[in-house]
Amino acid sequence: MKPVQTLVTVIIATTCEALRWPSMQRAIASVLTQADVSPQILVVVNGRRFDEEHYNELRHMTGLKVVYHEEGSAPLAQRIGRSLVCTPFFAFLDDDDEYLPGGLKARLAPLMADEALDGVASQGVRVVDGADQPFLISTVAVHRDALRALASYNWLASCGGLFRTRSVSLDYFDGCSRYLEWTLLAYKLASTRRLVFIDTPTFRIHDSPQSLSKSPLYRHGEIDMLQTVLQLDLPADVKASVRIRLGKAHHGLSDFYRLQHRMSLAWRHHLKSLRYPEGWRFISYTRKILPCRCG
Length: 295
Known about the structure:
Elements: E1 4-14, H1 21-32, E2 37-46, H2 52-59, E3 64-69, H3 74-83, E4 89-92, E5 98-99, H4 103-113, E6 119-122, E7 125-128, E8 131-134, H5 140-144, H6 146-149, E9 161-164, H7 181-192, E10 195-198, E11 203-206, H8 216-230, H9 236-259, H10 263-274, H11 286-294
Helix pairs in contact: 7-8, 8-9, 9-10, 10-11
């Protein structure tokens, strides 16, 4: 493929705090050094916690466009970034992750070859205990049926996609989903747009030491996301799989509250879990909270 110029905008949402500056520099460098692609970087600084010195440094960097929004919200910053895209394609990159060499070129190739294609998702790596591990252990299901694969796992990493601007509009980004927003986006795209998945690793995720998925806010966010998915125009079998996952999410939240000795909430979510398909699987769990309810 011949070198292309400014076909891609890479949106980086960041709080621009001093502690995040080294990873931010790494993220920017990984975009600027992409072979055969000359992307435009759009940095959306959001919130009031930004470091003024680093913010000014960003503003004076060559190859970057920097905008600021006072409200601290990554999903909102991503939506703002999408609203400012003027190139044919766009992608996202978290400020603590990076693109692998040749990553954008690998994603761009299918989109340049097929005008009817709306987006590309890709394999990548995740740093675990200092070593690179595959983002997805297996990609067989997503190649077979991307929409139905979402019942098992999310194949769309925040830094793993490349989208055609004219067909993946601003409406796909609600700007308010704080948790699992990329799973929600994957459902929206897989049900309405034409996508392909490539097995070439194009990104590296650097996880933070704290696991967001263990927090109650994340667990409630998963339920909110799944309820939003149920409002989409999806095939009946896909909606059934989402309802099964909702039951599992309520069960997980019930057990979380049980371990926190918050039994009223544990019961509330346990009863909800029983109402969903395959909820019978959680009936035996009742004995773990029944004595506390009687007491």
